[in-house]
Amino acid sequence: MHAEEMAEEFPVTAENSDAWTAVTQLAELRLPGLVVTDSAGHPVSILPASQVVRILVPTYVQDDPSLAGVLSESMADRVADKLRGKTVQALLPDKTPELAVVNHDDTIVEVAAVMARLRCPLAAVMHGETMVGVITASRLLQLALTTPG
Amino acid sequence: MHAEEMAEEFPVTAENSDAWTAVTQLAELRLPGLVVTDSAGHPVSILPASQVVRILVPTYVQDDPSLAGVLSESMADRVADKLRGKTVQALLPDKTPELAVVNHDDTIVEVAAVMARLRCPLAAVMHGETMVGVITASRLLQLALTTPG
Q1: Which residues of A touch B26 (CB under 8 A)?
Q2: 3-state SS class at A55
Q3: For chain A: N or C, fewer Cβ within 10 A?
Q4: What's the rounded Cα separation, in Å, for the pair A85 and B35?
Q5: CA-CA distance, A38 to A138, in Å (whole number)?
Q6: Beta bridge partner(s), residue B134
Q7: How far is residue A59's CA from residue B7's CA, in Å, rounded to a whole number?
Q8: Those residues with Cβ within 8 angstroms of residue B62's Cβ, 6 or more apart along the chain or in another chain
Q9: CA end-to-end distance (rounded Å), chain A
Q10: Nearest Cα to B105, choosing from A52, A68, A55?
Q11: In chain A, what are the domains?
């Protein structure tokens, strides 16, 4: 079985697209992250939900976590304010995690080797310059355990 | 809203439980990871699917990735052989990622602060010594965006 057959559709967002839209998508679809592409559609990174939750924490609480308990929680408005006019790029961590990228004809073992090395929970599958889908780590395990010997 | 109200059920596995069962659970439920508890039921770590895929890669391929393409893929049998008699502990990475742990009465901001600091995609919610559920990062975003101001 080749990577292209294993790949599934997965939400992507461009670096220069609207931050609020991307965060809403993460929240509504309950996704652990989005694949981030450059303006040409090439996958470059992941925006993990565990990074995005940082926007829920006011700066003065990041500096002094003991202040978190005394906040009032008018969250949605505050988050919308904070994201207004920002792009997805502004949400990416300083040290962007490297995205696993595999070729359409890679095997299960090849995909697993790349994922394990980068400790990346998903791999973007490329056919030439085009991203044809994504393979998550759990999908790869599922395929590996059901591939006949 | 307090952490206990935000918490959801989430599969857990004990450090000393059977590795094959845990991997099968990850694969069948398509989970990004399992919460790992000690024998007393206290959450201690996460077993990420991105770590488990390492077992799909034979050692000589880890040493020389160029050999991955020439393997035959009798996966399920090979994985079962590799996991026989092993516990979940044997699958955990050497440098185990720290699990975010929050109290049942923590607020959205407090949970977000812990998750963001540890870059952990989920937080275990404790009521005293008992784990009452888990909050994923995307669940937290969902709640934050729908909590009235």
Answers
A1: 138, 141
A2: helix
A3: C
A4: 37
A5: 26
A6: B8, B124
A7: 25
A8: A113, A116, B54
A9: 12
A10: A68
A11: 3-146 (3.10.580.10)
Going by C-alpha positions, the residue among B81, B61, B60, B49 that lies closest to residue A140 is: B49
Q: B36, B44 in Cβ contact below 8 A?
A: yes
Q: Parallel, antiparallel, or unpaired for β A100-103 and A122-127? A: parallel
Share the mean pLDDT of chain B.
Answer: 87
Q: Is A74 on the interface with B (CB under 8 A)?
A: yes
Distance from the A122 Cα atom to the nearest Cα atom in chain B, whole angstroms: 8
**Please, what's the b/e burial string for B41-68 (b: 16 or more CB within 10 A of its CB; e: otherwise)?**
eebbbbbbbbbbbbbbbeeebeeeeeeb
Under 8 Å between Cβ of A121 and A33: yes
Backbone φ and ψ for B21, nearest 5 degrees, come out as: -60, -45
**Non-local CB neighbours of B59 within 8 Å, separated by 6+ positions:** none
Residue B72 has which token pair? 């035959």
Beta pairing partners, A35: A12, A46
> What ipTM does the predicted assembly reach?
0.83
Residue A22 · residue A91 · CB < 8 Å: yes
pTM above 0.95, yes or no: no
> Which position has the higher pLDDT, A61 or A99?
A99
Helix (H, G, I), strand (E, B) or coil at A78: helix
Q: Is B40 on the interface with A (CB under 8 A)?
A: no
Region A57-73: mean pLDDT is 68
Burial of residue A134, with CB atoms counted within 10 A of its CB: 0-12 exposed, 13-18 middle, 19 or more buried: buried
DSSP state of A1: -
Residues of chain B contacting residue A137, judged by C-beta atoms under 8 Å apart: 32, 48-50, 52-53
